């Protein structure tokens, strides 16, 4: 079974600084998708970024980028120029290429200090 | 686009009663809907997957007779918690996917259930 591990329960970052959230996963599949979701205090899940495993290029979305290391099964999220609105719980998630199920990590609480 | 709503946003009920939670896709047809459960400060756990017009597929350990899921149309799925008990108190989140957006699930805002 696939598992997703987020080893950082909480992280803090100063406003305008950069922070990296870690995620590792375990799978025997070669084709899959990886996601980072943000859950602010409103509890609404928001997709931050998606990475297809077959793509070597790291995905980027404005201030958000990932470092995808397929051999190491690592998928970290870098948030640049952190803003107060980035404060939230961040979940890393995995899905098989043609699967339904999203497997979530335990989450990392990100606090942004002004 | 791709908005998913849930109703109610929160509900309090007495132990032993049943509660129905609705999940609607407002601007797209959801061929597949998912129901998750989230305990405070914990991750989301998939409870079941439902395809329109078919019986739901439940994850291991989820009681199908307790958590009844109906996906009767392409825009509506319901989760009914039958004979609710305090341990069923949780945050329930639905998500929806269309055949056009296979790689993305759109999440609802969640429903907080408190069973007294």
Q: Can you walk me through this structure?
A:
The complex is a heterodimer of chains A (114) and B (116). With 114 residues, chain A is mainly beta. Chain A has strands at residues 3-5, 10-14, 19-21, 24-26, 32-39, 46-52, 60-61, 64-69, 74-79, 88-96, 103-104, 108-113. In chain A, 0% of the residues lie in helices and 53% in strands. In chain A, strands 2, 5, 6, 10, 11 and 12 form a six-stranded mixed sheet that branches. Chain A has a four-stranded antiparallel sheet with strand order 3-9-8-7, with no helix packed on it. In chain A, strands 1-4 form a two-stranded antiparallel ribbon. In chain A, a hairpin with a 4-residue loop joins strand 8 (64-69) and strand 9. Chain A is globular, with a radius of gyration of 14 Å. In chain B, a hairpin with a 5-residue loop joins strand 5 (44-51) and strand 6 (57-58). Chain B contains no helices and eleven strands. The radius of gyration of chain B is 13 Å and the shape is globular. The interface between A and B is medium-sized, with 17 and 20 residues.
């Amino acid at each position: 079974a696939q598992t997703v591990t987020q080893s950082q329960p909480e992280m803090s970052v100063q406003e305008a600084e950069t922070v990296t959230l870690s995620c590792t996963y375990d799978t025997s599949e070669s084709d899959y998708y990886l996601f980072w979701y943000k859950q602010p205090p409103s509890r609404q899940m928001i997709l931050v970024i998606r990475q297809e495993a077959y793509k070597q290029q790291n995905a980027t979305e404005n201030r958000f980028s990932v470092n995808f290391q397929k051999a190491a099964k690592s998928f970290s999220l870098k948030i640049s120029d952190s803003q107060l609105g980035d404060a939230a719980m961040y979940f890393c998630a995995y899905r098989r290429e043609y699967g339904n199920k999203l497997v979530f990590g335990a989450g990392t609480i990100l606090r942004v200090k002004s | 686009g791709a908005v998913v709503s849930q109703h109610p946003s929160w509900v309090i009920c007495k132990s032993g009663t049943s509660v129905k939670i609705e999940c609607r896709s407002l601007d797209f047809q959801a061929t597949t809907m998912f129901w998750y459960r989230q305990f405070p400060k914990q991750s989301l756990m998939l409870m079941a997957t439902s395809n329109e017009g078919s019986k739901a597929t439940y994850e291991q350990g989820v009681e199908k007779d307790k958590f009844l899921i109906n996906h009767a149309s392409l825009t509506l799925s319901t989760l009914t918690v039958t004979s609710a008990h305090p341990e069923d108190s949780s945050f329930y989140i639905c998500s929806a996917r269309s055949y056009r957006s296979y790689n993305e699930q759109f999440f609802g805002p969640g429903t907080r259930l408190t069973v007294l």
